[in-house]
């Protein structure tokens, strides 16, 4: 069977009952979806399937032949951040980062569907995503900023200053 992962056709050889999460991580080497509860309860494994946020730990890959899958690797990289990723950096919305991939994908779908910077609506859209590190406030702030289309100069954030300091720049 085949998947379209981040715009690229990928042939999959895993048995059909293998979870999408295991296929992405173990067969295709895409590690942004995280292995958390593996029971649908934490959101760490969330990816987009045909644009909708889905728990990859619950999806047997055999039901997804031909499906379009998007992971964080399809959003942007270190030198080409998606505006949502930039908002997370600017607002310090990630600490250990374990939950961040899943939150980014859920937030991406929220904004793509016309989501606004309303904090209650954002909290509802991100419901069920467990972050063990933060109080969620910065996460909601980041999604709100991205929904508004805020722009950031990341060189002025503490994270940017830290990178500059430690790269000798
Ligand atoms: Fe899939 Fe927790 S690992 S929801
Ligand atoms: Fe650590 Fe969310 S940033 S679990």
Task: Write a concise synopsis of the structure shown.
With 169 residues, the chain is of the alpha+beta class.
Into which percentage range does the β-strand content fall?
A: 5-15%
Order of strands, main sheet, comes to 2-1-5-3-4
CATH architecture of the largest domain: Orthogonal Bundle
Task: Please identify the top-level CATH class of the largest domain.
Answer: Mainly Alpha
- Runs with pLDDT <50, length 5+? 164-169
The helical percent reads 25-40%
Shape: globular
Named CATH topology of the largest domain: DNA polymerase, domain 1
Give the oligomeric state of the chains in this entry, treating copies of one chain as homo and distinct chains as hetero.
single chain
* Largest sheet, strands/sense/barrel: 5 strands, mixed
Bound molecules: FE2/S2 (inorganic) cluster
Radius of gyration: 16 Å
Order of H and E elements:
EEHEEEHHHHH
Mean pLDDT: 93
Straight-line distance between termini: 47 Å
List the domain count as a whole number: 2
Structural class: alpha+beta
CATH H-tier superfamily of the largest domain: [2Fe-2S]-binding domain
Number of helices: 6
């Amino acid at each position: 069977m085949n998947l379209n992962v981040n715009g690229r056709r990928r042939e999959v050889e895993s048995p059909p009952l293998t979870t999408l999460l295991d296929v992405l991580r173990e067969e295709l080497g895409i590690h942004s979806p995280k292995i958390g509860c593996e029971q649908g309860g934490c959101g760490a494994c969330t990816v987009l399937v045909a644009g909708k946020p889905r728990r990859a730990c619950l999806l047997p890959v055999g039901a997804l032949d031909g499906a379009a899958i998007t992971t964080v690797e399809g959003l942007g990289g270190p030198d080409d951040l998606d505006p949502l990723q930039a908002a997370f950096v600017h607002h310090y919305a990630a600490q250990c980062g374990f939950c961040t991939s899943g939150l980014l994908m859920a937030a991406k779908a929220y904004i793509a569907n016309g989501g606004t910077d309303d904090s209650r609506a954002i909290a509802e859209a991100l419901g069920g995503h467990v972050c063990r590190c933060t109080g969620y406030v910065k996460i909601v702030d980041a999604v709100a900023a991205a929904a508004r289309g805020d722009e950031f100069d990341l060189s002025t954030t503490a994270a940017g200053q830290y990178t500059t300091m430690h790269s000798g720049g």
